[in-house]
Design brief:
The longest helix is centred in the C-terminal third of the chain and has 16 residues, at 520-535. Residues 1-41 have low confidence and may be disordered. Helix 15 packs antiparallel against helix 16. It is built from 16 helices and 19 strands. The protein is an alpha+beta fold. The protein has a five-stranded mixed β-sheet, with no helix packed on it. It folds into three domains: 1-55 and 280-319 and 549-576, no CATH class; 58-269, 3-Layer(aba) Sandwich (D-Maltodextrin-Binding Protein, domain 2), CATH 3.40.190.10; 323-546, Roll (Dipeptide-binding Protein, domain 3). 24% of the residues lie in helices and 17% in strands.
């Protein structure tokens, strides 16, 4: 999750102010769960044409070992297929995991420590050669190489022997990982250190992409990775700033019901100014009529201007990604060692003013639960310290008096000075103003973004109260709750995310119990119950969940935005 959090912050930072060219626009009705409504997007999709992708952030390190992504709706999924993938549907239906290269979601052992997958028959690379289980194994092994670092850390943590494996380029690693077996060309078996019922989710990560050993060029592999998906790379310049994809003639839709691959060509231009991206999409002239963005939001100023233009309104896609912005307490720092002080802050928060500071209700939905309000996470409604829409300063002041602070309280709130709508000065100021009404005087401590991250993730230097955020690597409560509340994940000499340094045996035991479940729906219900339980400890104050509003070109059809990524799914788009 850690890297995804960074990516999401960069995405949020892309929301900028500009006057839309071609007149004002109106976004769709608030509360509408559809990605967009009416217009060209509902026309029947057809094959052919070129889809342009206009992005702010370059698609760097286009190597499946180095990408921190499940390939959900973005470009990597067009080239890299994995054992499993996400269901390519709108909204909540798109938060389900489904088979991709594999015939099913995997067959677990009784205790979920051994997972066996069978590859589909007839799978081929772009050169027509067969994809084998050995290629999947090798693709995973090379992701352990130091020179190919950057991907998700789970395989190193989960696989037996993973923590010591140096990758296949080192003499010690040439024999491969013994915990991955390939008894035949279509079977692959994984041996894990402990039960992991959510292994099918992990198998969506690009590290599970097959890589033919004979074609591996180490760090140069990203220039032309061998495609297992519907498109192959024909150009990669500027470290992902310009990426051109064309059809893989050996890809078969019969083995891949998830990706439609309508366009003949995908032209990705990155490193663009966010204002320019939105301007080009709104105008929609020439090739930009068949263009999309997967990382640039409409910002508050833009949404304030969008009114009265039905055509543009029909070209605003709405996405929700499992992500929570919150206040984090460090109970090791006074006065936050007192639960009543933490509860007082919880009651005093004005979520309406916080949401307004984050861009308004169109871009930020107030939150009272740590888990996002989506079924796949196990969302269980609760509000242990009900502050209403604008806070409850009287209740907060009463708790402060009970805690011994009859004349009020002075505290410090740490935040980043970056304008990213998450830990920004504006949100910090909104919190400051709300707490003042309860007799809490808040001193704001703004740090340059790198200093902020180093400070809040250090056990030794972590402040008592700071703005924080978290997103999930896949739509489940597991990668959301465990890093924040599992006492065994406290990192004392590195980046720590268990900011409360909570080490509660009952919480740790429940995390272990849920990890054993291979029934993902049952696991979701347990994650929701655990969220409610940990919420009572008042070590976080959930503030809001972000909403993404993005334009797409007037010739773009078949818009699909799932709750897994919150991003328009390129594999579904048609431009003809």
């Amino acid at each position: 999750m850690r890297q995804l959090s960074v990516i999401s912050r960069r995405v949020a930072a892309a929301a900028v102010s500009l006057v839309l060219v071609g007149g004002a626009a109106a976004c769709g009705p608030e509360g509408d769960d559809d990605a967009a409504s009416g217009g060209e997007r509902d026309a029947a999709p057809a094959k052919g044409g070129t889809l342009s992708v206009l992005n702010a952030v370059p698609q760097e390190n286009f190597d499946p070992a180095r990408l921190y992504t499940s390939g959900g709706g973005n470009v990597p999924s067009l080239v890299f297929r994995t054992l499993t993938t996400r269901n390519r549907e709108d909204g909540a239906a798109g938060a389900k995991v489904v088979p991709d290269l594999a015939t099913d979601l995997g067959k677990p052992s009784e205790n979920a420590t051994v997972w066996t997958y069978k590859l589909k028959a007839g799978l081929k690379y772009e050169d027509g050669s067969a994809i084998t289980s050995g290629d999947v194994k090798y693709g995973i092994e090379r992701s352990f190489a130091a020179e190919l670092s950057g991907g998700a850390p789970y395989l190193r943590d989960w696989l037996v022997g993973g923590d010591d494996y140096p990758g296949p380029y080192e003499k010690k690693g040439k024999g491969g990982l013994d915990s991955i077996e390939t008894p035949d060309a279509r079977t692959i078996v994984f041996h894990l250190k402990k039960p992991e019922g959510e292994f099918p989710y992990l198998a969506t990560q690009t590290q599970f992409t097959p890589v033919p050993k004979a074609k591996d060029e180490g760090t140069k592999y990203e220039e032309h990775p061998v495609s297992s998906g519907p498109y192959k790379v024909v150009k990669n310049t500027g470290d992902g700033e310009r990426l051109v994809l064309e059809r893989n003639p050996h890809w078969s839709a019969k083995t891949d019901p998830e990706r439609h691959a309508y366009p003949d060509r995908i032209d990705v231009k990155s490193g663009l100014d966010s204002a320019v991206i939105n301007q080009r999409l709104s105008t929609g002239s020439g090739a930009d009529a068949a263009a999309v963005t997967t990382d640039t939001n409409l910002g508050p100023a833009e949404l304030a201007q969008v009114s009265g233009d039905k055509k543009l309104a029909d070209r605003v896609g709405t996405g929700r990604f499992g992500y929570t912005n919150y206040l984090a307490f460090n109970p090791k720092v006074k006065p936050f060692d007192d639960p009543k002080v933490r509860q007082a802050v919880s009651y005093a928060v004005n979520r309406t003013s916080v949401a307004n500071a984050a861009g308004g209700s169109s871009l930020a939905e107030p939150a009272t639960t740590y888990l996002p309000n989506q079924k796949s996470f196990g969302y269980t409604p609760y509000d242990h310290f009900p502050a209403g829409k604008t806070g409850d300063p009287k209740k907060a002041a009463k708790l402060l008096r009970e805690a011994g602070y009859k004349n009020g309280l002075k505290i410090t709130l740490t935040h980043s000075t970056a304008k990213d709508f998450e830990t920004s000065p504006e949100i910090a100021s909104a919190v400051q103003d709300a707490l003042k009404k309860a007799g809490i005087t808040v001193k704001l401590e703004g740090l340059e973004d790198n200093d902020y991250k180093e400070t809040v993730h250090s056990v030794k230097g972590e402040p008592g109260l700071f703005l924080a955020h978290w997103g999930a690597d896949w739509p489940s409560g597991g990668p959301f709750l465990a890093p924040i509340y599992d006492g065994r994940q406290i990192v004392r000499n590195g980046s720590n995310y268990n900011h409360a340094q909570l080490d509660d045996a009952s919480v740790n035991d429940e995390i272990d119990a849920v990890n054993k479940l291979t029934d993902l729906d049952a696991a979701a219900r347990r994650w929701g119950a655990l969220d409610k339980k940990t919420g009572e400890k008042a070590v976080t104050v959930p503030l809001f969940h972000p909403v993404y509003k993005r334009l797409f070109g007037k010739d773009v059809k078949n818009v699909v935005i799932s709750d897994w990524t919150g991003v328009l799914d390129i594999s579904q788009v048609s431009v003809k």
